């Protein structure tokens, strides 16, 4: 795998990862003691978890309003083409997963999700199939969703 690093304006970084014919770009955002990596590729939550691991990262835990704002902005920034603006149907998979005890936990470290930004009447585990936390790129609220659907996603790396 080949990594090419380049610095962008405003202190943002991105790198291109090429693996056979599939390319993926991450945009990096520093917030608190972590760096969030927002992917421009859509994968199922499970495949996103594996992609993060392949890059020696973990799927992102959003643990504060500041991190939530950065993640939402990073997701919305994926849509720079005026012909394809962010819509209400664009979601970012983050690292919360509902376990058998019905609690959402962060996959990065297994801690219970304390900070959240759920939309009204969420999470609802619709049809008993929604086990993953998603962040809406348009309005920023969270929802529980079906883990098998492809979404943009966020990974993270702790800085200390």
Describe the structure.
By secondary structure, this protein is mainly beta. It contains two helices and ten strands. Strands 1, 2, 3, 4, 5, 6, 7, 8, 9 and 10 form a ten-stranded mixed β-sheet that branches.
Residue runs with pLDDT of under 50 for 5 or more positions: 1-22
- Which whole number gives the mean pLDDT? 83
Q: What characterizes the major β-sheet?
A: 10 strands, mixed
Number of helices, counting only DSSP H or I runs of 4 residues or more: 2
Molecular shape: globular
Task: Write a brief structural summary.
With 160 residues, the protein is mainly β. The protein has two helices and ten strands, in the order ββββαβαβββββ. It is globular, with a radius of gyration of 15 Å.
Provide key terms for this protein.
160 residues, mainly beta, 14% helix, disordered N terminus, 10-stranded mixed β-sheet, globular
Q: What is the topological layout?
A:
Elements: E1 2-7, E2 13-19, E3 22-31, E4 34-39, H1 45-54, E5 58-59, H2 65-76, E6 91-98, E7 104-106, E8 130-136, E9 142-146, E10 152-158
Parallel strand pairs: 6-10
Antiparallel strand pairs: 1-2, 2-3, 3-4, 4-10, 5-10, 6-7, 6-8, 8-9
